[in-house]
């Protein structure tokens, strides 16, 4: 399966409206949907946040110019919320999954979908 199929499958779930797959270092985009790309500093800040979330917790998570309040940040997952929408990001062995869910979708529904894909990627050494 191509990397693009993973982001397409997230969007096809109906709970995610945009998704991207980056290298673990955040230095290259492997797949994206709906032009869901980030400025270099945004993805580098996200990638660094898995090892030290203090900057994200203090200043928020910025993606596509939007600031998200960080509601979870650890060495695997970083979740952000802005009004009724949010982002779910998960780091695997080789990738960073980033998914956006729109207003009307419960955060738990979106996180379950993204975390399950991350579990699968980890199980196949990605």
TrEMBL record:
Q: Which GO terms describe its molecular function?
A: actin monomer binding
Cellular localisation:
Cytoplasm, Cytoskeleton
Q: What is its main location?
A: cytoplasm
- GO BP, one annotated term: mitotic actomyosin contractile ring assembly
Ordered alphabetically, the record's keywords are: Actin-binding, Cytoplasm, Cytoskeleton
Question: Which Pfam families does this entry report, sorted A to Z?
Answer: Profilin
* CC terms in the record's Gene Ontology section: cell cortex; cytoskeleton
Q: Does the keyword Calcium apply?
A: no
The UniProt function text for this chain reads:
Binds to actin and affects the structure of the cytoskeleton. At high concentrations, profilin prevents the polymerization of actin, whereas it enhances it at low concentrations.
Assigned protein family: Belongs to the profilin family.
Q: Which PANTHER family match?
A: PROFILIN
Instruction: Give the quaternary structure.
Output: Occurs in many kinds of cells as a complex with monomeric actin in a 1:1 ratio.
What is this protein's record name?
Answer: Profilin
């Amino acid at each position: 399966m191509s990397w693009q199929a993973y982001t397409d499958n997230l969007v096809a779930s109906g709970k995610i409206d945009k998704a991207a797959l980056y290298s673990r270092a955040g230095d290259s985009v492997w797949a994206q949907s709906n032009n869901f790309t980030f400025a270099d500093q945004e993805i580098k800040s996200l990638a660094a946040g898995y090892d030290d979330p203090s900057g994200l917790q203090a200043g928020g998570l910025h993606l596509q110019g939007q600031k998200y309040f960080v509601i979870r940040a650890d060495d695997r997952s970083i979740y952000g919320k802005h009004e009724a929408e949010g982002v779910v990001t998960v780091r695997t062995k080789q990738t960073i999954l980033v998914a956006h869910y729109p207003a009307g979708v419960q955060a738990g529904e979106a996180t379950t979908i993204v975390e399950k894909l991350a579990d699968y990627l980890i199980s196949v050494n990605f």
